[in-house]
Structures are given as C-alpha cells and as structure tokens.
Design goal:
There is one protein chain. By secondary structure, the chain is of the alpha+beta class. It is built from 12 helices and 15 strands. The strands form 4 sheets. It has a 5-stranded mixed beta sheet. Helix 11 runs antiparallel to helix 12. It is rod-shaped.
Length: 500
C-alpha cells in the first residue's frame, strides 16, 4: 500500500499537470497580449490570478527548475475542491492561478478563451488546433456538428455560443464542446479521463513489487535450507571418506536442525563402534602375534637340537608352514580391517603404473610350473597416474598371487591408459571363475568350492582387499573371462587424476 500511495502521488501530480497546462498556456498568452485582462480572466475562471516579475522567482529550487523547463505545478486540496497552479508566461514572468472552487466554469472559460485566441490568430481552425495540441495534456479535436450526439436544446445552446460540458454516466470522463464561429463544426476538448488510483499500470507495479518481495522471501528461505543441507551433504561425504569426526552445526529447532542432530548422533555412534572395533583388532593381533612368535621360536630351538630324526624334521617343517600361514592371515586381517574401517590416509603420488606392474612381476613367486610375464606397453612411454603406490602394488600383487595359484602354466599382466582412466588386467590360463560367482568373488572370506584345498590355499581376503583399495582410489575391481588364455581375467580401473 505504501508503494501504491507513492506511485499514485506521482501519477496524480502528472494527471493534474496535464489537465492544467493547456489552461495556463492560454492564460499566459492572453496576459502577454493584454496585461490589463487579468481582472477579466479572474472573473471568467472564478480564480485569483496573479503575475510576478521574473526577478521574484520561486524560492524552492526544484519548483523553479521545473517551471523554467516549461512544466506546470499543480497543488490540489485533499477534498479536490480547490487548486493552485503555477507556470511561466511566454515573456518570462511567473503566473499563479488559485481556484477556490473547481467546477464546470473553468472548463467553459478554457474553451471560450481557446476560441478567442483562434479568432485573434486569423489562422484556419485546423492549423490553429495543430499548433495548440502540444500545449494541452488532453485531445483537441475538430468535429462536424452533425456527428455530435447532443439533444436539440444542447444543440441550440451551442449555436448561441455556449460551451457544453458533458460527463459520462459513470462520471469516469468529461469533455467540453464549443461551436466554431461561422462554421458547422465544433471543437471538442477532451475527453479527460477521471484519475483512477487503481489503474492497470499501478496494479501491475504493485503486483510486481509483491511478487518480487515474495520471491525474495522464498529465495531466502530456500537458500537458507539449501545452504544448511549442503553443509550436511559435505559432512556426510567426509564421513563416507573416512573422516569420522565430521559433524554439522545443529542449532535451531526446524527439520534441518533435527536432521543435523540425528546425523551427529549417528556419526558419534559410528565413530565409537569403529574405535572399539579397531582397538579390538589391534589387541587381537597383538595377542595372536605374541604366542605365534613364541611357537616359532620354540620350533626353531627344537629344529636346531634335532638333526637325525626325519619324522621330527617333517613335523617341524609342517609347523613352520602353519605358523607362516597364521602370520599371513593376521597380516591380511589387519590390512582388510584398516581398509574397511573408515579408510586409510592415502598419499597419492604420480607413479608409472607399468613400472609398478613390472616390479610386481619381478617379485612374484608362483609355482614352478607357472610363468608370470608383463605384456603391456613399454614402461618408458607409459604416462604417469596419481595413485597410492603401496596399496596399488598390494592390489596387483594379490591378483598375480591369486592367478598363480590357479593357472595351468601362464599368467599375464597388461597395463593400459587413456586420458582419464588407468587400467591393469591380470589374466591366467586356469579353469576360470563361473559367471554366477563373479559378484561374490570379492566378498570377504568368500572362497569358491574348488579352492578349498591346502594346495590352492587362500584366506578369502586377498580379493576383498583389492576391491577396497580400488574403492579408495575411486575405481573398480572387476572379474571376467580371458579371451586369449581362456581363464580368469581380473581388471583394476581407476581415474588417472585423483579428485579430492
């Protein structure tokens, strides 16, 4: 409503100025021609008309500048019955017209004065009206008398020189009609539309302001919620990446605050459980390694004291192998737990993966009947990739070791790279893995039926560790069938550039 009042304040001032500027122009012209006509004009318009010299200009600088630009200033009383108008005459003086009562008399006087000015100009009526239209804020039209829809009495009044002022039935518009002397034509001043405070323009401005305010309010609410949800999303991502101390600010009592409070409780619970689990794994590993070390030490003492008993030597060799397996199992469990429980701290470095794969091939200790070879691109021309070298080395090593246990005689390691992706394939000529087992082969402690032998061995954690290493590299570990060798093909795929 304040905006509507402000808009209407400007619109009403403009409306009254447009209505008054023609009348003030005619009065200024007449006074310029005949300064003594001021009394006659005051009587005609029922107004107090005064003219001040150019030196006595208005004190208000804003009004003075407007008057100098040829504009008029109109002040209307609150009840609309009186008005004060000011303008500048053609000779540079200041014209002031004060109406005690605004009625039909002013419209009639304006029309009469317009006709008198036309008679003095000695111009054709069309030419005169064309010269006067720029000074009026409402239309001036020349119409044949026959086109006017007036009663016989009104027509007779116009023939006698009276000015006919007409209002529409709803009072929304008014016009003045005056006959042109000596011609069967009439000049129509108007119509002048009544000032409408709820015009389309005003309502459009208010509606636009209202929509903008509502939009700003909705944007503020949505943006606030989105910002808080984005913080919650960031905390969730950090928690998923292994930062177990990630928390969100849960101040307030709305839905997002309650969600943040629930998230913090969940994160604290997860952190407590993982902390307990880690402590348990460390304690168990320590407790296991201590007796294993004592057993190994005792077995070595017995081995050193017994030289000539083949049976005892065979049993000691078996015990040593069992101890070695137990050591490896503990190491596998610790590695898997470290990768699975919240994620390790990875130090990504730019590494030539082909050189890393060749190093694994050189370190491989497969059975005597199996050969391991690298058949990928030349390592010297292989682009670098961002990896954690320890863990990628461990992943390739696990795949090579797994392939060596099941291969009939050959294992191949192949590296490839594109602009965005790095890939390592390990293929063997063994029996392969049935397609229905491809999904569960990477599960922890999952061992296929034909691998449950002491010869083929395995603890069911090697491929799980590979999968977790690829997960922390934002990659994937997949299994399929080798087209060339006919056995299994394990593939590691991860981005060349690590994204934080």
């Amino acid at each position: 409503m304040a905006a509507l009042q402000l808009v209407n304040l400007v619109r009403s001032a403009q409306f009254y100025e447009e209505v008054a500027q023609g009348t003030l122009h005619l009065i200024g012209q007449r006074l310029d021609q005949a300064p003594s006509a001021i009394s006659d004009l005051s009587a005609r318009f029922d107004a107090d008309i005064s003219v001040l010299p150019a030196a006595e200009r208005p004190s208000d600088e804003y009004e003075r500048n407007r008057l100098l630009r040829g504009q008029v200033i109109v002040s209307v009383s609150a009840d609309g019955r009186s008005a004060s108008m000011r303008s500048m005459t053609p000779d540079g003086r200041w014209l002031s017209v004060d109406f005690d009562t605004v009625a039909e008399r002013q419209a009639q006087a304006t029309a009469t004065l317009l006709m008198e000015q036309w008679e003095q100009s000695q111009q054709p009526i069309e030419t005169f009206l064309a010269s006067m239209r720029p000074h009026f804020g409402y239309p001036l039209a020349l119409l044949p008398l026959s086109d006017l829809e007036v009663s016989a009495s009104d027509h007779a009044r116009m023939l006698y020189g009276d000015v006919l002022v007409r209002l529409t039935l709803d009072g929304a518009a008014a016009e003045a009609l005056v006959k042109v002397p000596g011609e069967a034509k009439a000049v129509r001043l108007g119509p002048i539309e009544k000032f409408n405070p709820y015009s389309f323009q005003a309502v459009f401005v208010i509606a636009t302001i209202g929509v903008l305010l509502i939009g700003l309010g909705v944007y503020w609410v949505v943006n606030t919620f989105e910002t808080r949800l984005r913080k919650l999303e960031q905390a969730t991502s950090r928690l998923a990446q292994g930062h177990l101390n990630a928390r969100v600010s849960s101040g307030g009592d709305d839905a997002v605050a309650r969600l943040g409070h629930s998230f913090n409780k969940m994160a604290e619970h997860i952190q407590r459980l993982i902390s307990i689990q880690r402590e348990m794994v460390r304690a168990v590993s320590h407790e296991l390694r201590t007796p294993v070390a004592r057993i190994r030490f005792g077995a070595q003492i017995i081995e050193d004291t017994v030289f000539d008993d083949p049976f005892v030597a065979k049993q000691l060799a078996g015990m040593d192998a069992d101890i070695q397996e137990l050591d490896e199992l503990i190491d596998e469990i610790l590695t898997y737990a470290r990768l699975e429980e919240g994620g390790p701290i990875l130090d990504f470095q730019k590494i030539n993966v082909a050189e890393l794969a060749q190093q694994v091939v050189g370190e491989a200790r497969p059975p005597e009947h199996v050969s391991v070879s690298y058949v990928g691109p030349d390592a010297a021309d292989f682009p670098v990739s961002e990896v954690e070298p320890r863990y990628v080395h461990r992943a390739i090593q696990n795949l090579v070791g797994n392939a060596g246990r099941y291969a009939k005689g050959q294992v191949k390691v192949i590296c490839s790279v594109t602009d965005d992706i790095c890939r390592v394939d390990v293929e063997d000529d063994g029996p392969g893995i049935p397609e229905e087992d491809w999904d569960r082969v990477f599960s922890a402690f999952a061992r296929l039926d034909d691998s449950r032998t002491r010869a083929s061995g395995g603890y069911g954690l090697g491929l799980s560790i590979v999968r977790r290493i690829m997960y922390w590299h934002s990659g994937r570990a997949m299994v399929g069938r080798s087209d060339e060798l006919g056995g299994a093909r394990f593939s590691l795929i991860w981005p060349r550039v690590h994204a934080d």
